[in-house]
């Protein structure tokens, strides 16, 4: 005999499944939302896949912050324009985001950067800046303030990067571990804090832990993801004149930056030290994700950690060869992670199982 409790359980499962079905739909309700979705998907497929899990009230401010951050990154990385001009343009773009410069001034300034974008999606992103700035002006004040706060830190980190590595013909290293920590915080750790503040504001009963505890974990989560990027891109960064590994550690190993690519085995102790630090940081990422009560937000939050864990495993396997080839998690593996999260409603048991397989 079916009891009232059975009915309640059935309705709970059905309602939760309905929410997930709605989350996984690609369709957008307005042409503006469709354009934003298309742009986001073209700029970063992995981030787009992650953000689709989020409730709408979180999806919009996070998507906008991401698009603005990618736009500033495109300006910072534009070839064919001198570093001083890129820095000045970043400052002006930052002023536009902060509401200190008019949209027209920003658009005119960015116009010279648009035709220099080799990637079509990056070119479309810069062309969409007026719409993004207009979108920002229509955000709720609290969300707008948080977006401006996180973008101020990100652009500061991008400008520091340009100042530190202003000559691609010369491989320069960061001075200390503190410099690397500062870099990973400015371009990603602050994003973990931003994500946390938005979730506590928009998601009822967001987490089992306090806001202060989640802010600390979120900060470390973001810094760890950027450190994984540093480890994954170490070879290409060195070829572009950038070494994010501390100079004092290289000096202690009697290793010059110019020797790293030709003598990768000598570099391995330093590289592996930071690889182990990234692995430890992902434990904080999992602690953060497990603490989230809302399953849709938990799924969106944990996916980068799962991809990060798999990336570290591949870097581990590659050893010294990681500096000379591209190491990347396959789309097939990412899709399998997303499918597992979806069919299990991102239960804590399921994310732990995916986590173990990824490592």
Structure description:
By secondary structure, the chain is mostly helical. It folds into 2 domains: 134 residues, Farnesyl Diphosphate Synthase, CATH 1.10.600.10; 192 residues, Farnesyl Diphosphate Synthase. The chain is built from 17 helices and 2 strands. A two-stranded parallel sheet has the order 1-2. Helix 4 packs parallel to helix 9 and helix 4 runs antiparallel to helix 10. The N terminus is likely disordered.
Please give the domain count: 2
- Report strand %: under 5%
How many strands, which pairing sense, and closed or not: the largest β-sheet?
2 strands, parallel
Indicate the CATH class of the largest domain: Mainly Alpha
Read across the widest sheet, the strand sequence of neighbours is: 1-2
Can you lay out the helices and strands and say which pair or pack?
Layout lengths: L3 H21 L6 H13 L1 H7 L4 H21 L6 H15 L5 H8 L9 H8 L1 H9 L3 H24 L7 E2 L3 H26 L8 H22 L1 H6 L2 E2 L3 H6 L11 H27 L4 H24 L12 H13 L4 H11 L1
Parallel strand pairs: 1-2
Question: Which short descriptors sum up this protein?
Answer:
1% strand; 17 helices; 73% helix; mainly alpha; globular; disordered N terminus; Farnesyl Diphosphate Synthase; 2 domains; 359 residues; two-stranded parallel ribbon
Question: What does this entry show, briefly?
Answer:
73% of the residues lie in helices and 1% in strands. With 359 residues, it is mainly α.
